[in-house]
Write a structure and sequence with these properties.
3-stranded antiparallel sheet; globular; 7 strands
């Protein structure tokens, strides 16, 4: 399969099937992250694998916010109107917490700017695309309560959390509802500078 075909195949899954994710497939996804490029090959990514009921319950806790009607339209399963909240956990059997180690990433010698965030995001994208290539669904989540996640999971102070990658098989309903994502024309997002 061509890379562009994999990219077109990938979509955000907001309702996962209860079927567990096979260890072999999880390892392929993690391996794709291991081979992702990072600045000066420093490999500062730190991937926390959350796949026990106890840890997935913690994900629900740090991905719960006040009710937002506009998000209910995206994922009705997340709406808990009775309790005035939205829970942005979609039943994924595996959640990867993507972090980078501030002490391990490359820093620009003149500005001191860290490559950590960029490195971690590249790693996440590589894992997401590998998941799509082996028919595993994913959702990339960047909106969560980092302080609560750090406390509940006891994440080391030097690790910066960047995103969550939910992994599993899309529910039947999600597969039926999915339509290829619409994209803007290249002329709207790419510009030749003269």
């Amino acid at each position: 399969m061509e890379l562009l075909d994999i990219e077109k195949k990938r979509y955000t899954v907001r309702s996962f099937d209860s079927k567990p994710l096979e260890e072999e497939k999880l390892n392929k996804i993690l391996e794709a992250g291991r081979w992702a490029p990072t600045a000066v090959n420093a490999q500062p990514q730190r991937i926390v694998i959350l796949n026990t009921q106890e840890n997935l319950q913690k994900v629900k806790e740090f991905c719960t916010f006040g009710f937002r009607k506009e998000y209910k339209e995206l994922a009705e399963e997340s709406a808990d109107e009775a309790h005035g909240r939205s829970v942005y956990y979609y039943g994924a059997p595996v959640v990867l917490l993507i972090c980078y180690d501030r002490d391990a990433c490359w820093k620009h010698p003149e500005t001191g700017e860290s490559s950590g965030l960029t490195d971690a995001n590249i790693v996440a994208v590589h894992m997401m695309l590998e998941a799509a290539s082996i028919d595993v669904g994913s959702a990339w989540i960047s909106y969560f309560d980092r302080d609560k996640a750090r406390e509940l999971l006891q994440i080391p102070d030097a690790w910066e959390m960047t995103s969550l990658l939910y992994l599993g098989y899309p529910s039947e309903e999600t597969r039926q509802k999915h339509k290829a994502g619409k994209r803007k024309e290249l002329s709207e997002t790419c510009f030749v500078w003269e």
